[in-house]
Design goal:
By secondary structure, the protein is an alpha+beta fold. It has two domains: 10-131 and 252-277, no CATH class; 140-250, no CATH class. The protein has ten helices and ten strands. It has a four-stranded antiparallel β-sheet. Helix 1 (49-55) runs antiparallel to helix 3 and helix 7 (181-205) crosses helix 8 (221-229). The longest helix has 25 residues, at 181-205. 22% of the residues are buried. Bound molecules: zinc ion.
Length: 282
């Protein structure tokens, strides 16, 4: 009988703890990747035991799958977190932390004036409400072209981060004094080529479309990639500058504290080292 009956415990399953409005407000999402209610507010559930284990497993975090699984478990309206625009990632993770452990996160901060370290309670809800989506409406203009940017999605962001981490590791091995000089030079030029490729990839993934002065709109990533590979440094620099600005505009604002020793006001950056961000419940 118990097999066919509905579980009487169902109403005791975890419930949404908070509702959030995404910084993107649902823009830049593939419609199939999210179920956005008309209010724009989506429910966030606390982590299960399985989620907690996943978010603390270094391998699952490194390849991004752990973060994706936890997001889809705690925010069921998100059907495919790989497709999530980068501007929503931090906000969603902060919301999951609030839903799981409460609004306040205890942090240690050292006063730059008197050098005393104290614990401060960071109100994550306030931090969350300050995250802004950069303005993507204004194109980067160059030589009659209008280049429209958009946020990278989580899949591309994660891939970029992983590859840039690997490049850094490889770069470090090249400083090995026992390495043969010829091998070193060959490896070094390969390395440079990969870094250039990675830089181009970030720009391609961040480009929504390019409109020519004849009014032709180019959206095919292969054409866009080919254009960047054959562009002057000036065009690439303009886009990089805009991407840096967007990244600053979208970043989590630092948290203001007053030193309890000398009353000095100072700011503490909010960092997303997942193992510590999700590592403790207080
Ligand atoms: Zn102080």
């Amino acid at each position: 009988m118990e097999n066919t009956a509905q579980n009487p415990l169902i109403k005791h399953f975890r419930q949404p703890a908070i509702y959030i409005t995404l910084p993107s407000r649902g823009n830049f999402w593939d419609p199939s990747a999210i179920n956005l209610p008309p209010t724009g507010e989506i429910p966030v559930y606390p982590m299960t035991t399985k989620d907690e284990i996943l978010i603390r497993t270094p391998d699952a975090l490194m390849n991004g799958q752990g973060v994706v699984d936890v997001i889809q478990s705690c925010v069921p309206n998100i059907k495919n977190a790989w497709a999530m625009p980068s501007v929503d990632v931090d906000a969603v993770l902060i919301a999951i932390r609030i839903a799981s452990y409460g609004n306040e996160m205890e942090i240690d901060a050292k006063c730059p004036k008197c050098g005393e370290s104290h614990k401060y309670g960071m109100p994550l809800g306030e931090v969350l409400s300050k995250i802004q989506c950069p303005n993507y409406d204004k194109p980067v203009e160059d030589n009659g072209l209008k280049i429209y940017l958009h946020p990278q999605n989580y899949f591309s962001l994660n891939e970029t981060n992983q590859r840039s981490y690997q490049e850094q590791q490889l770069m470090r091995t090249l400083t090995d004094p026992n390495l043969d000089e010829k091998v070193k030079i060959a490896e070094f030029s390969k390395q440079i080529a990969r870094i250039v490729e990675l830089n181009i990839k970030v720009i391609v993934d961040s480009t929504a479309c390019i409109v020519t002065n004849e009014g032709v709109t180019v959206t095919d990533p292969r054409f866009i990639q080919e254009f960047y590979e054959n562009s002057s440094k000036q065009v690439i620099d303009k886009i990089k500058k805009q991407l840096e600005k967007n990244s600053t505009d979208a970043s989590v604002p630092p948290f203001n504290v007053k030193c309890s020793e000398c009353q000095e006001d100072f700011v503490v950056p909010v960092t997303f080292d997942y193992s510590s961000f999700f590592g403790q419940s207080s």
